């Protein structure tokens, strides 16, 4: 295994289709399409439910704002793996059957899959106000501390 630098499927062997690998690729494509459809359907259902919750008059503005932020973060956390893992890997397995060379594309697919775990928490940190404020206050230590005046209500300690 030390000499293996590329792993792939033989879709054609001696100019004849290798039906077991082609069938496996088609099953993989079907699973990916089903997962994408499931994501789309569930996002639409969540959107309609949150829309109903936002129209509810009993909730506070803070709660409505927080629900909207959670929904946006959920959408971005759903889009991220689709474009960084599902689409690149899907193309990586699909393009060779069409005869397209994926030598350079495989490096892009590897990079996007490797960088995904580092980018995954960013939508929550950047979209949700409380998380963003905590993150910025903790990690922006190079900012100058703001100097605020002292409370001037009772500075005379001699008068009693």
UniProtKB/TrEMBL annotation:
Q: Give the keywords, sorted.
A: Membrane, Transmembrane, Transmembrane helix
| Domain of life of the native organism | Eukaryota
InterPro entries tied to this protein? 7TM_GPCR_serpentine_rcpt_Str
Q: Which residues form a coiled coil?
A: none
- Molecular function in Gene Ontology: G protein-coupled olfactory receptor activity
Where is it found, in Gene Ontology cellular component terms? plasma membrane
Its signal peptide is none
Has the keyword Cytoplasm been applied to this entry? no
**GO BP annotations listed:** olfactory behavior
- This protein's record includes keyword Transmembrane helix: yes
- Transmembrane ranges? 22-44, 73-95
Name under which the protein is recorded = G-protein coupled receptors family 1 profile domain-containing protein
């Amino acid at each position: 295994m030390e000499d293996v630098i590329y792993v792939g499927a033989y879709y054609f062997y001696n100019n004849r289709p290798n039906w077991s690998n082609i069938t496996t690729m088609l099953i993989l494509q079907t699973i990916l399409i089903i997962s994408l459809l499931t994501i789309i359907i569930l996002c639409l259902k969540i959107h309609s439910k949150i829309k109903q919750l936002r129209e509810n008059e009993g909730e506070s503005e803070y709660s409505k704002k927080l629900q909207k932020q959670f929904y946006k973060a959920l959408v971005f956390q759903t889009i991220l793996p689709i474009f960084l893992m599902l689409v690149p890997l899907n193309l990586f397995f699909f393009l060779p059957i069409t005869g397209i060379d994926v030598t350079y594309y495989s490096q892009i697919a590897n990079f996007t899959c490797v960088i995904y775990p580092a980018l995954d928490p960013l939508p929550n940190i950047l979209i949700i106000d409380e998380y963003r404020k905590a993150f910025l206050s903790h990690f922006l230590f190079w900012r100058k501390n703001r100097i605020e005046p002292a409370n001037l209500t009772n500075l005379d300690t001699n008068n009693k």
